[in-house]
Write a structure and sequence with these properties.
2 copies of one chain form a homodimer. By secondary structure, the first copy, chain A, is α/β, with parallel strands linked by helices. Chain A has 13 helices and 11 strands. In chain A, strands 3-2-4-7-1-8-11-10-9 form a 9-stranded mixed beta sheet, sandwiched between helices. The first copy, chain A, has a two-stranded antiparallel sheet with strand order 5-6.
Amino acid sequence: MSRNPIEDKTAVVGIGWTEITRRSGVSVLSLAAEACLAAIGDAGLTPKDVDGLVEYQANDSVGALELADVLGVPAVNWYTDIRGGGDHAVSSVALAAMAVSSGACDTCVVYRALNGRSGHRFGAAKPSTMGGRDQWVLPYGYMVPPQWFAMWARTHMARYGTTHEQLGAIAVNQRRNATMNPRAVFQKPISMEDYLSSRWINEPFHIYDCTVEVDAACAVVVTSAERAQALRHKPVYIKGFAMGSFGRPSWEQWADMTEMYSKHVGEMLWRRTGLTAKDIDVAEVYDCFTYSMMCQLEDYGFCAKGEGGPFVASGAIALEGEIPVNTHGGLLSEGYIHGLNHSCEAVSQLRGDAGQRQVRGAQTALVTSGAGILGGGIVYHTK
Amino acid sequence: MSRNPIEDKTAVVGIGWTEITRRSGVSVLSLAAEACLAAIGDAGLTPKDVDGLVEYQANDSVGALELADVLGVPAVNWYTDIRGGGDHAVSSVALAAMAVSSGACDTCVVYRALNGRSGHRFGAAKPSTMGGRDQWVLPYGYMVPPQWFAMWARTHMARYGTTHEQLGAIAVNQRRNATMNPRAVFQKPISMEDYLSSRWINEPFHIYDCTVEVDAACAVVVTSAERAQALRHKPVYIKGFAMGSFGRPSWEQWADMTEMYSKHVGEMLWRRTGLTAKDIDVAEVYDCFTYSMMCQLEDYGFCAKGEGGPFVASGAIALEGEIPVNTHGGLLSEGYIHGLNHSCEAVSQLRGDAGQRQVRGAQTALVTSGAGILGGGIVYHTK
């Protein structure tokens, strides 16, 4: 079997968003429908052209078949409702690519819709639906993502001397990008002083280290490379993807607590695509917290392990830096549409549609996903 | 794009079950692990050879990553936890085939595990997690699957003169098959008299028209066709699949209430595979109720629309009939492992391993899934 059988067989041909707010005032179904119609329209298609749907959620969204009814999709030939979180921001798009390239459907909408602030909040302490792990950690009050990632960030700080200011450099840079993104929920710039004086959520995380919960939806439309030629926009091809976990049996038991899953995934992605970090023009890297973004930069090879702190503080990740990261402001500043908005931004950048924050000549983009349990990476490019 | 790009790219190389009981006394995690280890062992592999997992559930099972930890799978390179029901008995296997043929993983375990009798019961009246439909039907007390399927069966009886005895012929025949299946939860034969005098669940359904809720798990192992050559059993190739829905917007609003989704899916499956019902040696057809099986026989073209009643009563579906159906006893008599057990039985039959109930010379099998909302069909064959 070839290493990467789906290479360039499919392309993203449409992207769409709702307004990103802290209180939508409408149902998740409304958000999902609005984002999907926007993405389908952006592709120059109508719901009659759609025959596949995929979404991921944590009991907080609307299923694909219910949405298909509302959109007016006449026949659903393939769909998957994925149980799960940010791990699936990339794998959901990859699933669409797999479905289209396998002949299961022709044109597939991928969406994520949530009232993540006014409805189900990820930051709220409640037992997850992920199963047995809870019984071991809840008795210790170890309940919410900022706590988990804080432990890993602490390890990195202790081992490599990573500083608060270095984490802050990520928050400040992404907010700067968000000032150039009319969609972003936070568009007011912050200084390092603002960052350092902001309240703690969970040391070493200030509030600005944490993703911003929002009410929103976004969507991407995937179809075959052939069909993409005939559509409105320059096709953004899906070159390859990888997902995975490393160092099982458990995500609290990695051999190296500063690696999470992403070293394994990064190596697999580069092996499959024949690329390396040097080939990437723009990277949208899953940033549920500043630390998770920094850790992945190391593990995907944008810098060496342990050098993430100096790397992000050097300006390398700025729009004009060697690898612009989270050009829309990321989950920290555009808003937490659970990571699917990273793919929307990557497509904007590769089309050259990103306005003031456009990375000039961007042709190849990396998008990653994942929040501790498992993650994924996908490479988009134009020809 | 070729009509059926995944044709024969993958094969089922292992199958496994737990004991099928009405009260397992163990957790769903235990059941899942036992069935998966059995399937992996049946393939002549160990958990170290597995790098993909997929399962489907309705908040009643164990997720793939938690199971991977317990199995001792060292690296998960792809997985999907599907939200959903019997619709996914086929699409989950298809997803594994898509993942393997797309290069996402090499060897994938598909499982369904549930304490479907002692734990979460599908027959119990409680609001589903499927979303908005509930608000329209719950106020009328239209809550559980026997009610939904009963309405459709009534329509068929009214339009085509289908009789109780014809539905009963399915129940009696499947119980006869189950007497030759040491795994089946019900192995005592029933007569037509037993059927007709049994209690009503929801007219026109007697208790014997309804699937039997059980505690159990089963699993299949999918790998590439190349790798399958080297393994223990004769490979059972995945020739093609289809899933879909027809006549949206809603499953209570089909243009023809006797067709459900399966005419659309059947036509798509035959178009993709180039086969017809005449090419099928053995069929394991989703039988949440007798009626759903009969309806699909019509829609896949084993007989004409409206002739399902006389067809099943003619003996055509018996082991020695023109198209043996649900050779293990089906969900009605082997037990409701939510349809994945249909694929296990198909593989047994194609290997020639089905003992007393073996269909002689079976080389091509159809398995279907679906429970009203959407469904799927998959063709397995040996070479």
